Amino acid sequence: MTSLDNAQHDRHAFEDEGGARDKTRDTTRTDDTRIGAVRALISPALLLEELPIPDETLELVARARQEISDVLHGRDDRLLVIVGPCSIHDHDQAMDYARLLKVAREELKRDLLIVMRVYFEKPRTTVGWKGYINDPRLDGSFHMNEGLRLARQLLLDVAALGLPAGTEFLDLLSPQYISDLIAWGAIGARTTESQSHRQLASGLSCPVGFKNGTDGGIKVASDAVLAASSAHAFMGMTKMGTAAIFETRGNTDCHVILRGGKAPNYDAASVNAACDALKASGLREQVMIDFSHANSSKKYERQVDVGRDVAGQIAGGDARITGVMIESHLQPGRQDLAEGQTRADLKPGVSITDACLGWAQTEPLLRELAVAVQKRRS
What we know:
There is one protein chain. By secondary structure, this protein is of the alpha/beta class. The chain has a single domain, classed as Alpha-Beta Barrel (TIM Barrel), CATH 3.20.20. The chain has helices at 7-16, 19-22, 44-50, 55-72, 91-107, 144-160, 175-178, 195-203, 219-228, 268-280, 302-315, 359-377, and strands at 79-84, 112-117, 165-168, 184-187, 208-211, 233-237, 243-247, 254-258, 287-290, 321-327. The termini are far apart. This is 3-deoxy-7-phosphoheptulonate synthase. It is an enzyme of class 2 (transferase). Its EC number is 2.5.1.54.
């Protein structure tokens, strides 16, 4: 009998490798001890097959990405404007907003490159509703497969109007489900310092903006731009839903977003300081300015005042301001999502996260920015 057929030999070899000792070990005593449930997640490939991207939308996204890149690299003197709800919570209301924005985009396209803000993930300081993908029914049921489908369908519907979309990338897996439909992406203030998000940005096909830190510091954002422009290798999930090692080429279409911190940083002095810091790091002297968040002291009406100040800087000839962000919805303000409420209980067109400008305030602000670009150009 050869050693290959010798059961005694196999048993000794198994025991030498620790098999006899480990074969009945209960690993659940040290693994998943705080996991309450594990549910199946649809693979990105299946969702993309179910909701494919039409050729017209493919062309729209590719064209918008190139136009944004041209703005960032100084080949296009328009102002990039990311405008829309703080977060999406209702498909029909988002589409009503998109139709209004599409009209403004066409009318102001000579001066403004308008992209609709379509945010599905909401970072929380402690706890709260985490967004349309995480909890699309707004009731804590966490139907994430449904949320992914609804998010992708909304992006397809917005694109069908001829309107490009921008979003914040918060979860590291969700881009595989929707990133082919995104013209511009953001990394928020709480995640700009995250190595994983910098690596993600280095492999994304769209331009990406990094917000300054929550304390207002610019260095974390400039470091993020440098990191994202470099090649990286990291672990992730493929479209087929399997684990893989991704090797990226780096993203040269990244930039810094000023969103304020301990104090606002939209004024001319802050723009100068930010651009000096970027120059010292060997980066392009350019910024996008967020009219909301700490720049408006979390008072949504002040976005108009911030926008007027920024428009003045642009009209004065400052070409380093290449973009702005505005939180805007159909109606002004915000509302709480109370426990037990349904979507039908909410006021239509009003944000359930950060307070937003209403469309009646947003449209004149867009026109003011367009006039500022005309003055800068002349």
